[in-house]
Amino acid sequence: MKHVNFSQPLYDTAQEIVDGCMGDAAPACQSACPMHTDVKQYVKLAAEGEYQQAVDVIRQKIFMPQVLGRICAHPCEAACRRNEEFSQPISVAAIKRFVAEKADKKENWNLAQAPATGKKVAVVGAGPAGAQAAVELRRQGHAVTIFEKLKVFGGMMRVGIPEYRLPRDVIDFEYGYLDMMGVEVKFGVEVGKDITFDELRSDHDAVILAHGAHVGSIIPIKGHEAEGVYSAVEYLKEISETRAFPRAGKRILVIGGGDVAMDCARSSWRIGADEVHQCSLEEMEALPASQVEIDEAMEERVAFNAGWGPKEILVEDGKVVGVVLQKVLSIFDGDGNFSPAYSDETREVAVDTVIFATGQVVADITDGALEQGRGGRYVVNKDTLATSLPDVFVAGDASGGAIVVEAMALGRKAALSIERLFTERALEADRNLEEEGAYKTRLDVPLPEGTVDTPRIHHNTRPAEERKRDFIQVDLGLTEEQVTSEGDRCLQCECKLCMNECVMMNDFGDCPKSLFSDFIEKKEMEPLLAYSCNACDQCTIVCPKDFPMKSIFMGARADFVKANNGHSPIPGHKAIEMHQKLGFSRIFTMAKKAVGR
Amino acid sequence: MTNKIFMPGCSLPSYNPEAVSKTAAYLKSVYPDMGAVQKCCGKPTAAIGQTEKFKERFADLQKDFDKVEAEEVIVACQSCFGMITKNASGQKPVSLWALLPQIGLPPELVGKAKNSDVTFTIHDSCSTRFETELQEGIRWVLKELGYKVVEPKHTRENARCCGFGGMVVPANPDLADRVIKRRVEEFETDYVVVYCAACRASMMGIGTKSWHILDLLWGPVVMQGDEPPANVLASPVKSWMNRYRSKVGLNRCMAC
Fold first, then answer.
1. CA nearest B29 in A: which residue?
2. From the list A532, A538, A558, which residue is nearest B171 (CB)?
3. What is the ipTM of this complex?
4. Enclosing domain of residue B94
5. Sheet holding A229-231, edge to edge
6. Is CATH 3.90.650.10 what the domain over A120-214+362-436 is classified as, yes or no?
7. Which end of chain B has fewer CB atoms at under 10 Å, N or C?
8. pTM for the full model?
C-alpha cells in the first residue's frame, strides 16, 4: 500500500473529537481538589479493602492524609455528583482518614529526589504551604531550610485548628516526612526579629514566604478596647498551647460565622465556659463555616445569633458586660460591595468575654520590601506567586489561600516557579496553570443508569455533652463496614460512555480522544482500526456530544482504498469483492416489470 | 397508482428463497402491477471504502430501477433501505416491515401462533435504528401471528450490533465474535427473532436459536424445543444456489 493521505475533513472531525471528548476529563472531586488527589481511585480501593493501595494513591499527591482526612474543608465533597444530585456526597475525607490510619507506614513513604542541585531555598513557615513547598523543592534536589517562629510543626493547623479536631501527634507523625526528605527546620526563629529578611535573601538562592496570617483583627466598634475582648488568633493559639485561657470569663460571645468562629465557640466549652454565644452578619443558611462544624457546634448547644451584627460592646468598669446586637437586613449593597444594612431591632446578650473571629491579617516580615494588599496579603502574580523581588515567592495564607489543601497547592506552585527560576526559564513556561489549583472539570455526563439516593455516613462523633468538656478528638472515624458502604456509593464518575458500548475501540485505545490524537499526531491509522468498526453508531448515540466516530473510520477506509489501487488493504475483503461481482452478475439478478405492463 | 417493485436484497434470497417467493406472491396479490428486482445495493462495496466502485455498482442497480420504471421499492433488507434512501434518483424505499401493517397479513396466518409456548426476544437491525415505523411493523407482525415477545435492554434505537456490520467479519473475525456474544448476552429468552438474514447468521454462528421474521410468517409455528432452520449463509455454495433459486422464483412470480 502506498502512503495514505487522509483527507482534511477526517482530521477536522478528529480534532473536534479530541477537543471535546471527555474521556480523559477528571471527575469533579478530583478537579475541585487543589492538589488533584485521585479521589475516585482511592475511594474505590478503600471500598475493596485495598487500604495500602489506597494510601499509595493518596500519597502520590499529598503527604498528610490523616491531617486532611480530619480537617480538610474537602472541596471534593462539595463537588461530588452525589452532593449535586442528592446533597449526600461521598465522605471522601473520612475515607482518607480511615485508610491512612489503617495502612500508612513510614517505611512506604516515597523519598525519591533528584540529584542535589547545590541551590538553597529558605521557606518561612512550617504550615501546610511551607511544608508542601519544602517537599517539592527537596524532590527537585534543592537544599531547603524552613524558618518557623513556633517551636512546633503545623502553623495555623497547630495553633488555629483545635486539637479535638486535629490531634497533635497526627501532625507530628505526618510531618516526619520532612525530616526523612532532608528538610532542615529551624524552630523558634522569627524572620524580621531573629534574622532579617535581607539576610535570608542573601543566604539563599530563593525564598518562599509562607508564614500565614497570624495577626488577629478586632473590629473597632464601641467598647472594643475593654478588658475581655480578644482576637480569635490569640484565643485559639493560647488554648492550643495550654488548654486554657485564664483571661476569659464564663459567658463568651464569638463574633463571626466561619470555621474559626466555630472553633472559638467550641473551644470555649472546653476551657470551662458556662454560656457560649455566637453572632454573625450571615443568616444560618449562609454561614461560611462548613456544615460539619455548624452541626457539631449546635449539638454542643452554642447559642446562635446568625443574622445579627455587633452594634456595641457594653462596658462597666473597663470590663465587658454585654454586647448589643442589631438585626441585619442585608450584607452587600446593590453593586455587591460589603455594606451591611441593619434594622432598628436590637437584642442584648449579657457576656463577660468577646472573641472576634472576623478575619486574620498577614504580618509584614519583609520590612516593607514587598507590597501588601487587603488583609496584609502580599501582592503576587496569581499564576506564579512571584513578587516584585525575583527570588521571593509567597504561598499559603500569606498570598491569599483560604483552606489547608489550597495552601498546599500554593506551596507546590511556588516550588514549580522556583524550579523555573533556577533553570532560567520563564516562570510560566511548560506548565498547565489552570490545573495547578482547583478548576471546573469538563466532565459532564448523565447520571449512571439506576443511580438512587443513598444516605451518607461521614462521622462517628462522641456525645456532645461528653466531648464538649475535653480536648480528646470528637470524631472517632469510620468503621471498616462504613468505609465499604460509603465507598460503594461512589459513582466513579467518568465519561467513557462510548467505550462501554463499543467493543472494538477498547482494543485500540481508552477513549476517542486518545485514539484520534494519536491519528492527528502521527497522521497514520492502523487499517485494522478503521476496518473494525461495525458502523453501528452506538458510540454516537451514547456520546453526550454526539461525536461521529464512525464517520472517521468510514472516511479513513475510502482513503485506504485510494492508496491501495482501489482495493481494501484487508486481505479478507477480496472475498467481498468477489461476492459483490456475483451479486451484480446476470446469473443471480433479475429485473422485471409485472406482466402486462 | 405508483409503480411498485419488490427488492428482497442479497442475504434473504441467499438464506430463504421460498420466503422470497411467498412474499413476492403475496405482495403481488395485493399489488397486481408490482414488478421485482433482485440485485445487490452495493452496500458491501461502499462499506469497505470503494467509493468509486460503489458509484458504478449503484448506477447498475439504478439502471434496473429505471428500466422497470420503479417509483417505490419494497425492500426486505435494512441496508437496501438506507442505500436507496441515500443514493437512488427517483425511487422511494418502503420497508416491507412497515408495509405489512398497512396491507395486513394473509388472513389464514393471523393468530396461527397463538398457542405457541415460545417467547421471542426481538433483535432490531442497527442500520435502521431510527426507523420507528419499521420497528413497529415487526412488532405488529409478531402480534398478528400470535407470538409472545420480549424486548432486550438495548432495543430499537439503542439496539446493539450483531457484529456483522461494516464488513468486520472478514477483517477482524475475533472481534465480530465478541460483539455478537455481547449482544446475545442480554437476551432473556433462548428464542430470537430478527429481520435481517445477516443478523441471523451472526447469531446462529454462536449457537443462538434465531428465526427470520419471514420464517415465522411463512414457516411452521415454532414451539419450545423446536430447532431453527439451518445456518445456510455459513455455506457459500448453498447460499449462491439459493440466490439463484430466489431469482428463478421471482421471475416465475412476475410471469403470472
1. A594
2. A532
3. 0.95
4. 4-102+235-255
5. A229-231, A353-356, A251-255, A275-280, A303-306
6. no
7. N
8. 0.87
